[in-house]
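Agenda item 2: C2E complex prediction
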Amino acid sequence: MDERHKILVVDDEPNNLKLLQQILKDKYQLIFANNGAKALQVAVSHHPDLILLDIMMPDMSGYEVCGKLKADPALEDIPVVFVTAMGEQDDETHGFDVGAVDYIQKPVSGPIVLSRVQTHLSLVRAKDLEDLAKSSILMLGEAGHYNDTDTGEHIWRMAAYSAAIARAAGWSPHQTEMLELAAPMHDTGKIGIPDDVLKAPRKLTAEEWVIMKGHSQIGYDILSQSNNPIFLMASEVALGHHEKWDGRGYPNNLVGEEIPASARIVAIADVFDALTMRRPYKEAWPIDKAVDMIEQDSGTHFDPTLATLFFEIMPEILAIKEKWEK
Ligand code: C2E
Ligand code: SIN
Ligand code: SIN
Ligand code: FE
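Presented output:
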């Protein structure tokens, strides 16, 4: 099988097609179309990785072709680069409006074509990898809740709460986004807890509780296998999310700021979410009661500064909750 990226080149001028073919043929698999209708057909049948699209064509303009591609869910992700003669794109924004990612000027130069094509193909790869990473995070989150009654919703909702608290605490956008991706994995270690403990529709026995508490360390052991910064943050969150401000948490009885800030934030988000949703062993609490409990436990269970921020952003928290209830 030809592993090279597939590029669809669309132009009504045979000479232009030939020129682009010369430039691209050594590095890419090429498909050609000499009008818009054919381009759309070929896009459906061959699903190229990128489309180089002439703007001025009889019958159907490049703009129109691009608009149709972007309106088709099966084709909308294919990046489109317009290849345009001088003066054709007086209205440069038009191309971007219809969804193109870039322009290349005619007469085309080989190095410019190659470099632009490569850029947009590696952006595609970056996007694929981002999807892959997010899916992996979701799956690890799900693994932790596989035997639980809650679904993926809990994972992303509590991640959104965590991000909101981090933002309120002055974390940078980058750190906040990292926490939003790390937080969903906080209970990954539940995968190592036997069914009959995790699923018990009742209060746990003392013995079972010892087993249950092991999920923090198990999560850390799994997630710290990776050196990726998001997974390192996730492992720190997994280990520390049941520590308490007064040192009475588990597994390491850390006190106050010994507990990583990420874990102190997730502790609030996790408990608020756990209380306000149904569990096999308990009904959902009304929001007021959950807020009261966090307030009461501020300074013992929870970091009091973060708890105060959490109350201040309550409208945002409730908006997140509502969004996920739909
Ligand atoms: P979880 O259900 O995701 O709960 C996360 C945390 O939210 C709990 O951590 C606790 O701090 C808080 N929380 C949840 N429900 C309640 C509640 O009804 N009352 C109060 N005061 N706090 C609540 P915790 O206690 O360390 O528990 C960790 C995990 O252990 C829980 O995660 C759950 O999976 C399991 N677990 C805890 N208690 C029980 C239980 O009585 N029966 C069963 N089957 N599992 C339990
Ligand atoms: C930040 O301020 O962006 C990070 C804070 C932290 O990790 O504690
Ligand atoms: C337990 O001791 O079984 C759990 C207590 C709690 O949910 O906080
Ligand atoms: Fe937990």
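Discussion summary: Residues 8 and 51 are 5 Å apart (CA to CA).
Owner for follow-up: CH.
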